[in-house]
């Protein structure tokens, strides 16, 4: 690795290329009941089991007609009635209409559906009201217009959200083959750390990174494996790291900056680690370390995340999450940035790309972009500020300030 500290885009390229290569090594799969697959990554394509729709479907309650006849505003005889779920009716006689419900099969011979609200009725006759005309195809979805039988609807490697689960359900997939979640070891380091359920001494702190990173791992499709926190000495770190080597990925928090107890890098090096980079020109998160440890099976990717909680979260979201998603079989590797309008200035820093903790909110009654403002903070250890944040504002290197009113890119947390 060259000694120059890479910029954000340079480091991101290294990580995303690494992650893309990992996608080729297929993780293990398991078969799950459809209703247990939310958030899982598909390990098989989902295909339409029949034409979608399988029949010409009405999208409105009303009357199936011939558009040309209806548009002439003649009275049409109601020839029958069809509800959703009933077998296709028809054919539609000339100068006739067929009462139809939303989701029912349009009778053969009809080419449009007049909405109930757009017709006048006189006993068994209906007529399109004045000023209304109908085009062929209106309010009708032709058979197979959505997909043909056998067509791939969802590719392997897609994260299953509500819309994908609905599509799988409609195609009859009661079970799905999904990738087994990768196990991510989380090793926090620091003599000052005590467990969450204990009272810290006057200069101690509770270990918040373990819980935070576990949540981030779960959010990104991994199974967190929290190791006991390690003390800042070579022996303790070495034995903790040797435990973590069994995992599919390793996150270490703390001990990566310049202090004399920042021993993570030398201990990793003693295990034969190869470092892709040992710092990135970002703030927070500059001391981030990324590398791999050789193993008999496949190398173990690791991130040495800076101990400050906001730095740990930012670097995991920006870099670690891409490697985790690749290990999980998820084809969407890079984090999904969004956009929002700044309600306050966002300040840059010389020679660094900044990710400023911020809160974005949107007014459901407005059609404007969400508004975003940095949260006031005392630096990357300020968990009180972080609790008020739900995103990071992205200020690229070389930009001194993004003024209030401008659109900024944000990374939701
Ligand atoms: N002389 C320099 N000092 C520092 C530099 C530098 O370049 N030169 N970089 C600073 C930056 S930026 C960061 S970020 C931190 C990163 O430090 P480490 O990764 O070595 O982390 P620690 O020193 O162990 O801890 C930093 C900070 O975070 C707290 N911490 C650590 N682990 C946890 C945890 N599990 N839960 C909650 N909080 C944790 C720790 O108590 C420290 O306050 O270094 C700067 N210094
Ligand atoms: O840049 Mo460090 O990651 O702020 O505290």
TrEMBL record:
Its cofactor is Mg(2+). Pathway: Cofactor biosynthesis; molybdopterin biosynthesis. CDD domains: MoeA. Its EC number is 2.10.1.1. SMART domains: MoCF_biosynth. One of its GO terms (molecular function) is metal ion binding. GO terms for biological process: Mo-molybdopterin cofactor biosynthetic process. Keywords: Magnesium, Metal-binding, Molybdenum, Molybdenum cofactor biosynthesis, Transferase. Transmembrane segments: none annotated. It catalyses: adenylyl-molybdopterin + molybdate = Mo-molybdopterin + AMP + H(+). Residues 185-326 form the MoaB/Mog domain. One of its GO terms (cellular component) is cytosol. InterPro entries: MoaB/Mog-like_dom_sf, MoaB/Mog_dom, MoeA-like, MoeA_C_domain_IV, MoeA_C_domain_IV_sf, MoeA_linker/N, MoeA_linker/N_sf. Belongs to the MoeA family. Catalyzes the insertion of molybdate into adenylated molybdopterin with the concomitant release of AMP. This is Molybdopterin molybdenumtransferase. It comes from Occallatibacter riparius.
């Amino acid at each position: 690795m060259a000694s120059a500290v890479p910029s954000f885009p340079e480091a991101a390229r290294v990580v995303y290329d690494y992650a893309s290569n990992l996608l080729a090594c297929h993780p293990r799969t398991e078969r799950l009941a459809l209703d247990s697959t939310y958030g899982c990554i598909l390990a098989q394509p989902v295909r339409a089991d029949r034409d979608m729709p399988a029949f010409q479907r009405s999208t409105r309650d009303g009357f199936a007609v011939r558009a040309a006849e209806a548009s002439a505003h003649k009275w049409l005889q109601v020839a029958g009635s069809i509800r959703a779920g009933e077998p296709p009716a028809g054919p539609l006689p000339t100068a006739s209409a067929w009462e139809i419900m939303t989701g029912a099969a349009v009778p053969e011979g009809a080419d449009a559906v007049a909405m109930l609200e757009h017709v006048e009725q006189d006993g068994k006759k209906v007529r399109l009201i004045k000023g209304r005309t109908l085009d062929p195809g209106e309010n009708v979805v032709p058979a197979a217009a959505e997909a043909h039988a056998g067509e791939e609807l969802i590719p392997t490697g897609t994260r299953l959200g509500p819309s994908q689960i609905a599509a799988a359900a409609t195609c009859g997939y009661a079970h799905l083959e999904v990738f087994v979640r990768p196990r991510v070891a989380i090793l926090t380091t620091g003599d000052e750390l005590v467990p969450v359920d204990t009272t810290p001494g006057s200069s101690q702190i509770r270990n918040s990174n373990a819980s935070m990173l576990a949540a981030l791992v779960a959010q990104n499709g991994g199974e967190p494996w929290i190791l006991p926190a390690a003390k800042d000495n070579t022996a303790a770190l070495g034995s903790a790291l040797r435990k973590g080597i069994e995992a599919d990925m390793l996150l270490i928090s703390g001990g990566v900056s310049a202090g004399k107890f920042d021993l993570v890098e030398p201990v990793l090096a003693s295990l034969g680690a190869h470092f892709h980079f040992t710092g990135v020109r970002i703030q927070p998160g500059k001391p981030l370390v990324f590398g791999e440890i050789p193993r008999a099976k496949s190398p173990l990717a690791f991130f040495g995340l800076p101990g400050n909680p906001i730095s740990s979260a930012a670097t995991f979201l920006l870099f670690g999450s891409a490697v985790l998603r690749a290990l999980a079989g998820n084809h969407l590797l890079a984090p999904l940035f969004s956009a929002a309008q700044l309600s306050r200035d966002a300040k840059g820093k010389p020679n660094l790309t900044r990710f400023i903790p911020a809160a974005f909110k949107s007014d459901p009654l407005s059609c404007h972009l969400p508004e975003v403002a940095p949260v006031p903070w005392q630096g990357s250890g300020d968990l009180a500020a972080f609790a008020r944040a739900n995103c990071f504002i992205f200020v690229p290197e070389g930009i001194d300030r993004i003024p209030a009113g401008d659109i900024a890119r944000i990374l939701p947390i």
